Amino acid sequence: MGGFLTLCQKELLRFWKVSFQTLLAPVLSALLYLLIFSHVLESHVQVYPGIGYAAFLIPGLAMMSALQNAFANSSSSLIQSKITGNLVYVLLPPLSPTEIFWAYLLASLARGVMVGLGVFLVAAPFADLALPHPFWALAFLLLGSGILGTLGIIAGIWADKFDQLAAFQNFLIMPLTFLSGVFYSIRSLPPFWQGLSHFNPVFYIIDGFRYGFLATSDVPPLLSLAVVAGCFLALSLLTLWLLKTGYKLRS
Amino acid sequence: MDGVDLEVMPGEFFALLGPNGAGKTTLISILAGLVKADRGQASVLGFDVATQYRQARRALGVVPQELVFDPFFTVREALRIQSGYFGLRRNDDWVDEIIHHLDLADKADVNMRALSGGMKRRVMVAQALVHKPQVIVLDEPTAGVDVELRQALWAFIRKLNSEGHTIVLTTHYLEEAEALCQRIAMLKQGRVVALDTTQNLINAVSEQILKLRLDPDRLPASLESLAGASENGERTLALQGYGTLEHVLAELRRAGIRILEMQLLQPDLEEVFVKIMRKS
Question: What ipTM goes with this model?
């Protein structure tokens, strides 16, 4: 237990020590998105009746930032440790695969939640936002960040160089998060793209999270919760299996 | 690795020697759980490194060969974190003691990035010792390290050994292994090619080297078979034990050759090493 707590603490300290880059920068980026998109689209787009565009956009932006940062945290920590070689100090102690998994995951969750919350706090004054279903929002925030944090661990284990990690990020994570309905409702898409979006787990994360704020969604929130929880479980089991077999870490 | 069968005794100071690529680091990595052996079994203090990895790793402190460090932390933070990984979250007294013994007190609150190579190496040794492991493995700890640190390091490691810690060492400085280690295994291409006490290994090379300056500068024909290199009037003869010495002196006397200078050299570990590596 002590080993697990220390690894968790170390992973938290790692991003906390560079919080300008890991917490403030993503909040600022999200704020810029909000200012530009809501200014341009507020009077043109109404996704749900009676809900302004900014009120629609803010939960999605907060979630997207949370997801990207949850992924960035575990993946960059692992790849840096692998490349500089200091991962050996995590591999030498008697830490179990499960402890390693949860320590990296919880730090990712913490950063994801902090960034999501930060975006929400700075963006809230720009729209009239309520939170009628806080537990739904919280469940999707945690499970969503969990999925991306876990994907970050997988990417960090798999990638041998920064280049490969960047490919994972740019060709998988970015499209999944941008094409998930953060900036639009998938109902406004042509049928083919609408159908395709239903295969994107991030769509369910965003849609379910938004339900917590707007009390309306593209798909029933329970369905989203089932998809998101199922993805998290499957990815967690895969990650644990990778850690147990020592894939790429204990060659 | 190819059929390595080794047992290091508790409390021993043991050396693993061999040329680059012989498998020393691989062997250590298997013990430390950093590499999985596809066959065979390894254990630390009787704990299997695969099935009882928690006990095995708790008993083992490893100083890796590569200079690695976490740039996010100071020396003291790195040591506290490392101690915490082993479940020792309140270990400041021992951390302070290691810092003192390894002469790191001035640098304790300095970020790892700002340390010189030798200082980083000291921290790596400290990191291996935070959990007071019974078995300490040092993989070339003195590569690229100045004399002062080398001496301080060995004094500290000797102290730990005298307190009962088992030490396993790899090094390319054979005089270090000769001076420190009671037993030595030599590896080549993944196999153990020699395993014995340091003294036995040295004794097994029965050759002593005799260096002579002669007047006149020539060897009688009867000694030609012993002759080695000759340089600036200094002749080298290889002796098969002390018995040969009497024969050499008698032959020189009979030929009327005077000895101006004479030096008898004992074989050292380096010679033994070179011989064994050539032979196998």
Answer: 0.91
